[in-house]
Specification:
Elements: E1 2-6, E2 11-15, E3 18-20, H1 29-33, E4 35-38, H2 41-49, E5 59-62, H3 72-83, E6 95-99, H4 103-111, E7 117-121, H5 127-133, H6 142-156, E8 160-163, H7 174-178
Parallel strand pairs: 2-5, 5-6, 6-7, 7-8
Antiparallel strand pairs: 1-2, 3-4
Length: about 180
């Protein structure tokens, strides 16, 4: 599954890294469908190259089906091909990985020489709320996720975008705003 989003000044393609998803986040229907498989690097890249508007793309975001960092090797391989001058020669600043932040994979990403953008799907300011919203991330404390994300940011001099979906009565309290 991929989604093409053209605007006046940009053309973004959201790309899947998996068929289905293991995360089962409270707000996402993909997780309710279950997980089928990781996509190969070729299958990931095919989503990009099969788009008739490929030459118009300014942004590629790994945020379709699945948690991109749980298909780490194929994700990184596809990003290297995207960036390679003999590959698609896509600009680094136009590549974004959207992740719920599995800590071990974030640490591995920090050591890559990619300098890509990334979005951290946090969706909570405390561990209990995040556990409810993202039950499969319980083993990754919110503190360690943020720490790993900041470490990547510092090493590669990249800003991190924080995604925070407001769920009424769950993570939209005044205390959440202050936190």
């Amino acid at each position: 599954e991929s989604v093409y989003i053209p605007t006046e000044d940009r053309a973004t393609l959201c790309v899947s890294s998996q068929v289905g998803c293991k995360m089962n986040c409270l707000f996402c229907m993909t997780g309710k469908q279950g997980f089928t498989k990781n996509l190969s690097a070729n299958e990931i890249l095919n989503q990009i190259q099969s788009l008739p508007e490929t030459d118009e793309l300014t942004n590629i975001v790994f945020m379709g089906m699945g948690e991109p960092l749980f298909n780490y090797d194929n994700l990184i391989k596809s990003i290297h091909i995207l960036r390679d001058r003999n590959g698609l020669n896509f600009p680094t600043d136009g590549i974004n990985v959207s992740t719920v932040g599995p800590v071990e994979q974030l640490k591995r990403l920090r050591e890559e020489h990619l300098k890509i953008q990334f979005t951290l799907s946090l969706h909570a300011t405390d561990q209990a709320t995040r556990n409810m919203i993202m039950p499969h991330m319980k083993s990754n404390s919110i503190h360690s996720v943020v720490e790993a994300a900041l470490s990547y940011s510092e090493r590669h001099n990249r800003k991190i975008t924080i995604a925070y979906l407001l769920a009424p009565g769950i993570n939209d309290r005044a205390s959440d705003v202050r936190q």
